[in-house]
Amino acid sequence: MPARAKGAKRSKRASPTVRRVRTGASGRRVYMVTGGVTKFAKAHPAMDFRLMVKRAYDYALKGIPNLTPDRIDGTRISYFSDHFTRQLKAASMVQDYLGMNPKGSVRLEWGGATGGECFQAGYEAVASGRMDVCLTAGFETMSRVATWKGNEFIALASDTNYDFPLGGFYTGYYALMVVRHIYEYLRLTRFAHVKDEREAQRLAISEGGRIMSLVSVKNHRNALHNPYAQYPKKLTVQDVLRSEMISYPITREQICTMSDGAAVTVLCTESVAREFTDRPIRVTGVGCGTDTMRLADRPFGKVPLMPHESAKDYSHLPYPGVHSFRAGRAAGLEAYRMAGITDPNRELSFIELHDAYASSEIQTYEDLGLCKYGEGYGFVERGDPFLRGVDYGFPVPNAGTMPVNPSGGLIACGHPVGATGLMQAVFAFWQLQGTIPKHFGDRTLQLAAPKRGAIHSHAGTGSSVTVSILERGFR
Amino acid sequence: MKARPPTFEKFRDVQAELDKSGAAIFRDGEGVESLVIRFPYSIQYIHSYAEDTPFFLGLAEGQLRGSRCTKKGCGFVYATPRGHCMECGSPTAWIDLPHSGKIHSWTTCHFGSEAFLKETPYNLALVEFTGVGSLLLVRLKDAKESDLYVGMPVEARFDPNPKYSITDIWFVPAG
User: Fold this and answer.
1) Which domains does chain A have, with CATH numbers?
2) C-alpha to C-alpha distance for A186 and A471, rounded to whole angstroms
């Protein structure tokens, strides 16, 4: 090809489009070989954060004789809030307590998505060739302050000039989002025939509250079979609706709680993975998305489409507004593209989804393309995200179609922030290995031969979100 | 020698004891004892509003200021001001916003962070203004939970004794 003369104009004809597709092949293949979780609890006064991580770490290494500490090349350690620890560089103390010095380590913090980011940082350490074996460890000790002070610490993760001084309270922010979500997707559809505007909105909110309660019942009842869960409960829709109103229309049983807990995973290369286990799980996709810190700044633009959607589905939908999570959509798109997923609802066996609120679980179904925008409420009512074989106290026609939070999720397991995303990885890992009966002592939650699962970790009012895809790496 | 702090088997009782004497022992189901103490922490920050200063000075003078992107062809208008445009990165200029708008979304908080518990219940609303591309989060006063709806017209009120905080402005139902 002749060299272009200096200063010559570029051809106006577009060069053949090369669609840049990132795949796992651009780095080394990464496998998860083990994990461990402490039971999440309101408080663990007999364990500080170092001992909690140590317990989860010992559990992970137990039963894998070849995986001795000297095989670990380094660590990635996560916790959300220095306010809760009141101990800066707490990750260094974990590194120290585990006897990992002088190996490489770094602390990760990314709000509610801290655990998910930590998992992806471990993935990157191995994929890049920097480590063959990486330990990821996360924890949070939220019992060290009273619940409402804890809410204040969490609310400091909102803009302290414009948002926090108004009554800084995350449940309030999520209530603002779901009231608009209900307006867009229930008021303007199911209740379009109601003439009186206030009456129509009240009916829509009442309907939305009922459907959010179905999600709460699902997650709390799944957790009855998970011994690691903090709040397994045999709830009914009425129980959820009658629990205390926290921020209208979100009730107490629709919200996750403060927890103490820790979780770890071990990630490594393909050849090393085979030395440790005959049931490795491959990480085939990682994605991360972001959005404005302030809800008030969210744009009203176009939906970034999934392959199974078309622009005309959303011709009148201002997106994301405050009703949807653009960061979740971006994270899902990136992870799916990398894993080669074009229709997540058909190609995923299950999702461990960041249900800090029952409302955000429903919003996230849509962001992750499990259904189209606006179909989240119907998706729950049809029963798609429920499990077969669990008694929910009401008929669930489509149970087992797309199980979401088979473990019980954050609402029932708890949300020790820095550990949560790693807890999801561990539960997904056991699910894909088929070892739930062994680790839970109960086979109810074990799905039949799941091939591929997603874990979803979510921060702020949706200001950062990660999605990772895990696949069975054995026959 | 000081007496050993009292022992409790419920963590709630430990917390109550800390408020009284500052130390307690928690004994868990397996008989493991943990010494628990109070560990207070308070701090006064020196906080500059920096590039957001005109907004907060404006509130104290009864003015609501947003910002507009200065780039031709962009011109994005922000209700919550930003020094630089999030669409194109250009600097913004200060503008006056209308003092009335509509509720874009709302909630009534029956609980809140510790600092705001005594103010509950309170209403939060995201307010939209005609011709403005983003929203403003405010407290909504003089209205009960059952009065509020998406699309409700609202108007601004300013604190006659400003504290140089976003709480110097709030909205009430219009008319």
Assistant:
1) 27-147 (3.40.47.10), 206-255+282-472 (3.40.47.10)
2) 36
